[in-house]
Amino acid sequence: MTPSTSDVTVEVNGNRMEMEPIHDGPYAGMPKEVLLKYSRQKKFVWARNILTACVILTILALLSMVIALIAVSPACQKFFQTSPIYQIYPKSFADSNNDGMGDINGIRSKLAYLGDDLNIETVWLNPVYDSPQIDNGYDVSDYRSIWPLFGTMADMEELITDLHDRGMKLIMDFVPNHTSDQHKWFNASSHPNHTDHEQYKDYYIWVDSTNGTSTGLPNNWQSVFPGNANSPAWEWNENREQFYYHAFYKEQPDLNLRNDQVLQELEDIMAYWMDMGVDGFRCDALAFMLESKSLRDNPLKDDTQPPSYENMYPDYTENQNGVHEIVASWRNLLKKYSSEPGVYRFMETEVYNEDIDIIMRYYGTEWQEEADFPMNFLLIDIGNDPSSWSGKNIEATVLKWMQNMPQSKWPNWVVGNHDNSRLVTRLGEKRARCTSFLTLTLSGTPGIYYGEEIGMTDYSMSDQTDFRDPERTPMQWDDTATAGFCYNCTPWLAVNPNNNDINVEAAKTEPTSMLSMYQDLLQLRSEVTFLRGWLCVVNSTQRSIVFVREMTGTQSYLVAINFDDGSSDTVDLTAFDTILPESGEIVAASDMTTSGNRQLRNLQIEAETGLVISFKRGGYFNQEASMSGRCFNPRKVCVNVIGLLEVC
Ligand code: GLC
């Protein structure tokens, strides 16, 4: 529209002014006054408002898209997801000063073995705190100092630095349920005349006798250790003329975790170690943290038998209300200590229970985060009876964890530790290989108990002091009398004489050794398909389990394990002939010998053998309707909602 002559007569400050119309464009060269006149017209005001609104809306939309994308994007994998957790029993790993006791500097001297030979990034140490060692360090007398035979706090700092320099992480054992009876808190708590008694008197669980004397036990609660019939969990204290509660040995009084001061002390201890640089905690015996205030008797499993820990349902002594709030508060603390880039503080919890829901609860809920994972002992719970190690039962065990695990959580698999007979002793060498083969190829974090990787076995000695000593003997580094654990020394526990054959040095040079199998699998599992890919449990028979690891755009692998020691097995996979080609290539075998191509549709697996077979897929198992409920992928750690793999 071209303005008419009259349009350019405007009033400015009460004076009418004639303005020169300029004709070389519709509004070109208009003076400010004229522009203002037009711009105030309703139609222009509207147009302008609409445009401004559009710009603001577009910015908001873009912003929310960015926020949404960040929110749904998969997180980079954390350290506990990319490496197995290698458990070191400090007394038995390596002794640097030849006093017969393993120590921190001994551990430092073996980091190349862990990091370079085994590709391990995460190490968990059983307790190294000062302790009278009634329960091998699980009776802590000072959470802020190191047991002198293990070394000094300076050694500990060096260990943390050495590990971090190698890109490795350190998990400490955290013992919140009880202290040693030699802890200064217990000393003050148990002595009414102690100058600090007032401050510490409620740090432990003190209960009056029912008859005023040491015979008036408060109830029938029994202690886990020594675990015989009639081992009351109550110990009489003459000074206070009261009983104190101990879920474990009497030298391990339970802390009163209903006391806020105690909770604060524990958080301060965690903070102390995180300030020192530790990367997380394995939290000990959490189920025992609270006891019912009602002090009701636990029901007996068998009324005709005397009370014992094994013969009672721990209805009033384990997994009581309130336990999860405590764990969640630790998670909050760990989060505060995870704010620096690249720093993440990890938590795993030790809870044994037959009820899977009770275990899973330690993952936390959608609203209340707790552990990164509760330790998964299902494979240990299977027991030692060879008939329990059927393909069907292993499948049921794997599915039990995976199907009950809350969405987006991370699985883990433990097959041995310092409280259980060693894997090879329980299952024999070949089946132990099969079991490690399983945990190293499933999705999730495998645990490796020191020496498991070379096939160490239990050794029962005559002068055994703890019933778990057989699985805690010195690491077998070589075939010398003291196994290279120490030199010219007497190890604190006798060396298993089978170190002649079973030792790291020999295993390193033997291409078919258990160690070589571990090395192969640890290498393989650093591939993205194993780290983040789908796990689809494809089929099982009485003898074998077959599962697949797959992921968009990466190599697919079939894992087939026959646990039976008698005969080979054939697993029918013809139902998947659109996905599986005729044959695939064996890329790892538990016997370190079997190789070549293998027919896949009727898959043959030798007795007590595990195979990883790579194949050119014709599709994805996780997209098959028939696989519903059998495929698992913690989505957040794999691909984002638009199907892109997060590269970290
Ligand atoms: C945990 C430890 C075990 C210890 C007990 C008491 O179960 O693994 O070794 O004896 O707690 O602290």
From TrEMBL:
Biological process annotations from GO: amino acid transport; carbohydrate metabolic process
PANTHER family linked: ALPHA-AMYLASE FAMILY MEMBER, NEUTRAL AND BASIC AMINO ACID TRANSPORT PROTEIN RBAT
Keyword hit for ATP-binding: no
Membrane-spanning residues: 50-72
Ranges of residues in domain Glycosyl hydrolase family 13 catalytic: 87-525
Protein's name in the database: Neutral and basic amino acid transport protein rBAT-like
Pfam families (UniProt xref): Alpha-amylase
Domain of life where this protein originates: Eukaryota
Region forming the signal peptide: none
Keyword set, alphabetical order: Membrane, Transmembrane, Transmembrane helix
Gene source species: Phallusia mammillata
